[in-house]
Amino acid sequence: MKLGRPIVMLALLIGFITAAFAQDAAQEAANEAKKLFNAGNKYYRQGNYDKALENYQASVQKDPSFATAYYWIGNVYKKKRDYVDAEKAYQTAIKKDGQLVKAYTALGYVQMIQQKYNEAMNSYKAALNIDKTNAKAYWGLGEIYRRQKNYNKAAENFKIATEQNGKFAQAWQGLGISYYELGEYTKAIGALQKAIQYHRRRSLKGDNYLRLGDAYFKLKKYAEAEKAYKNCLSYAKKSVVKAGANFGLGEIYKLRKNTRQAILYYTAASKDRNWKQRAEYEIDLLKHPEKYAY
């Protein structure tokens, strides 16, 4: 019995030493994981997504509990438009940290892109359960409703998103589109003007100038519509968007009885295959009105 106590003490000492070594090893692994994660961030900012992914994956191998690294793995896959693997990475991030709000909103986005609307809605709602002021989550819900053509619910959520973040260009854009579809053209104009103000990319400004022109046209404010359509032509990059603006200008000049100018704009619109049939019909109508007389 006298030998029992020294043996117990020795066992405890060995246990303490082993635990200390394990703790040191875990801390070393965590530090190495952070270094790899930071290197991944550097490559991500440079647009080198393959190297970023390599470092993020190495990071979680060192520290399997590193939720934020899994989140950034998801971001890389999202950049690569690999939404299936992005979804898996975000789900893993959430398993590692159930309070990581940005992982829920990112998960909702890639699910929405895959048209998994029920799952996406649940992800956005989960984000709001953690942070009731999260503008991205309200935007996501609005975008799902918009895609489902439930414009009242879409407008409701987009509006909350803009209230949480007054400079959220995509939310203003969604709100403008929803108001337009609801026939609330004056409200659409206000929202689209905000979208144009806060969008940084010129092409996105161009998209919204087209929508703005359409809203003014619906209200028969043709001078304002003309200005918006011409701004669209200055900013837009997509052929279909430019064609839409040219068609709108053709409509305005047709109403003004300026046939020559209307034909010029319709002709420009007809160069895009999406507008070709409509534009050519209008050109033929102006050139040969007798064909359509009753």
Features:
elongated, 15 helices, 294 residues, mainly alpha
Describe the protein's architecture and organization.
The protein is mainly α and 294 residues long. It has a domain at 238-294. It has helices spanning 4-46, 49-62, 67-79, 83-96, 101-113, 117-130, 135-147, 151-164, 169-181, 185-198, 202-218, 222-235, 239-255, 259-269, 276-287. α5 runs antiparallel to α6 (117-130), α9 (169-181) packs antiparallel against α10 (185-198) and α13 (239-255) packs antiparallel against α14. The mean pLDDT is 93.
Tell me the Rg in angstroms. Answer: 28 Å
Number of strands: 0
**Element order, helices and strands?**
HHHHHHHHHHHHHHH
The mean pLDDT is: 93
- Our measurement of the CA-to-CA distance between the termini, rounded to an integer number of angstroms, reads 118 Å
Which structural category fits the helices and strands? mainly alpha
Please tally the helical runs, counting DSSP H or I stretches of 4 or more residues.
15
Overall 3D form? elongated
Topology:
Layout: H1 4-46, H2 49-62, H3 67-79, H4 83-96, H5 101-113, H6 117-130, H7 135-147, H8 151-164, H9 169-181, H10 185-198, H11 202-218, H12 222-235, H13 239-255, H14 259-269, H15 276-287
Helix pairs in contact: 1-2, 2-3, 3-4, 3-5, 4-5, 5-6, 5-7, 6-7, 7-8, 7-9, 8-9, 9-10, 10-11, 11-12, 11-13, 12-13, 13-14, 14-15
